[in-house]
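Practice problem: predict the structure.
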Amino acid sequence: MTSGRVPLGSGGPLGSDPSMQQVDESRQPVIIAALRTPICRANGQLRQLRAPDLLAPVIRSLIESAGIDPAAVNDVIMGNAVGGGGNVARFAALQAGLPVTVPGLTVDRQCGSGLDAIALAARLVGAGGDPLYVAGGVESISTAPARANRTDDGGLDFFSRAAFVPPLFGDPDMGVAAENVARTFGISRERQDEYALRSHRRALEAAAAGKLAREIVPLEDAGTIVDADDGPKPSLRAPLMSRFPAVFVPDGTVTAANSCFDADAAAAVVITSLKRAREMGAVDGLLVLGCETTGVDPELLGIGAAHAAEQLLAQHGVAATDVDLIEFNEAFASQTIACLDHLGIDPGKANAEGGALAFGHGYGASGAVLVTRLLTQARGVSQNSGVAPLGLAMISIAGGMGTAALMRYARLQPN
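Answer:
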């Protein structure tokens, strides 16, 4: 069993972790930089910015901050769920000023798209060749195109969301699925409200302490500079939480207060091999130890992240309780609590600086936001305690899936 906290400078890239002592550094993926936009409510402060407008500044800032020659990027891999197509990764890469020789690939695994784009890049690094990728995700829900099916008579039948699975599997809306999870796993309204309120409080505390600003790329929209998240609510209190009615199922427990809201956002990372990162002079990063995606019953789609994480942790001989930092996409408090309960993790341990219940859910961007948050927090832990924390990113996905990624912080240069 590996220990969650490994002293820095105690040997190989994972210190005393025996599973990493013989690592092939040319095939070990490591994330050396991560940035994101402010996360803002859909149809709010970023409503005039399309997906490439959100993503291009992040790519440009990553390249500059990491001191990378833009022509050295092998590919730009981005997740996107409800955009208009056209390969937003390629579009944004060119808009960011990368040369035409750098290609782009867009990934669609709905809510998991951003994390899966990073997982894909990690697997490509593992294939060898010391490549360099920019990977992440973006969503402009504000500017997402209206979608319609063509009818037999040539008309248009507009729909709010695509079908995720064939009808025989149920294909519930997200809120209904969250109620299914709450009922099936016995997650009370009180636990959901308590968790959601804690997420807002933690996000506000992190922002006040300046912990979020270091990872945010300011954006300009309609002549206004937007440089902070706008979701966390300082006025939210327990008595107010209790007054919100159920919104998806009569007499249910899932409310607007313990559910996330739609948001516009982009986030991306620079990922390469440990060998190349050292050669580039990168000081630190997140070693990607493994990624796993699994499927579950679409009626209980919110539990997908737990099953992916369970498989991933078992593959690496890691107990869930040994993980130091957990970033879970809080689409709904019910599914977040259910997943953490399933893994045997105290929900109070997850999302130490708030999550999507406070910040909002930017669909294809959210998984990449989790990784960005992990890198920022891991750096803080290492600075304060001198250990290399083990981190876990998890996201449940429409259609009954989940993705998880296991990472460990490491110093990459000799002391």
